[in-house]
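Exam prep: given the inputs below (a chain plus magnesium ion), describe the expected output before reading on.
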Amino acid sequence: MSYLDNYDIVIGLEIHAELHTKTKVFCACKNQFGDEPNTNTCPVCTGMPGALPVLNKHAVELAIKAGLSFGCDISPYSVFERKNYFYPDLSKAYQISQLVYPLCIGGKIELDSGKTIRLNRIHLEEDAGKLVHINKAVGTLVDYNRGGTPLIEMVTEPDFSSADEVVEFLKKVRESLVFEDIANCKMEEGGMRCDVNLSLKKKGDSEYGIRTEMKNLNSFKSVQRAIEYEAERQAEVLATGGHVVQETRKWDDASGQSYAMRSKEQAQDYRYFPDPDLLPVEIPSEEVARIKSEMVMLPQDRRKRYIEEFGLPEYDAGILTSTRYISDYFEKCVENFNAPKKISNWIMVDLLKLVKEQEEFEFPIDEKSLAGIVKMVEEKVINKTVGLQLLDKVIETGKDPLVLAKEMNLLVTISDDEILGLLRKLKSENVKVAEDYKNAPEKVVGFIVGYVMKNTGGKANSAKVRELIAKEFQ
Ligand code: ADP
Ligand code: MG
Ligand code: ZN
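Solution:
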């Protein structure tokens, strides 16, 4: 029996993802993680007086793509506002963000259970710099490289009721953003982070309770643990007659606890107002249509297509859509030779093992060549073992598989007479086989084919062999 048994958990998320642009959102500095501190900076992103921001079009396009990925409406008119607060990593003393007129409105993502999580909005804003705490003697240093890099913030409605739902949702969001190359979402680099708003309500109640907010969780594990801890904590407060205080809490992974940072009374008034240095963004519907036409099919839609149209098992569809690269590769192979399941087998069994443990890879053979080999095997011009030898050789030489197969004499097929000769030899040496064949052909045909293959180095065409067996063993 836990205090939580009497309550439903209610969670809403605010997710930040760093956009994959070359340059920052309001200046031409590089948007690059891991460079020497303060090397990617300029008067604009360090907030020098009089410096003027210029909006990065690519950042807007990526934010729109994010919106289109999740079914948002793209606003024809949106406004950048200044969110005023002081912090050492924010040299302007305001962050350029959006409040009243965000770029994307609404939207939704469906969980595997069929439950829908509604999005409230997605807006575009700039990131702050980073404080680096050295030690007591040196103190804290500031790195402004991240300052001014583009972020999208996605805000959901309070539709989640468990940590599992939240983690599944975050994985889906990450998958879509990475697939479309909108964001890298490298969580260990802070490329995707999430604020969790959580409240409880008595089971059956319709009114929401008071919520707390845990900021900047940057791994699925800490999201999971923070939610479980906070739900238990609130349940105990409520069940023992207390009140949940609306506050920001910090999750500490090391201790496995959260603690209060500031309450609502201490919360700042950001005094948002439209940034006078930036014009409102107007996006004609033709522009949205153009951006949409450049987008690829999302992984969940591709999975559906692979299962329904190509007849692949769910397992195959999952692996083949695990990255955009594999999925594009697979589809291109299928365009070259329309045998999706066969292609899938080759990729999953024979190609992936060649690149295993590499985080970023390209298969060492192009799509057309792989499709060519699979085709030869399927048309029984060569058998699978020879196909694998051919694969190695194509990888080694980069030559066309058919040309190579001819050069290597792999295509030599055994003549009908040779096959017949072998069948007659078998018949005379092994009388039982012939008898067994008469009684139950299907039981021994495999054995006979095997015999021919063994004696021809696997080069006989197995369909042909079966045809001749039927003749010879009648
Ligand atoms: P604020 O403007 O104070 O940040 P919002 O209305 O923008 O508040 O909500 C911020 C986040 O908090 C959203 O993700 C929303 O879904 C979530 N949220 C709002 N009310 C609750 C609640 N009672 N319990 C849990 N989450 C909530
Ligand atoms: Mg908020
Ligand atoms: Zn700059």
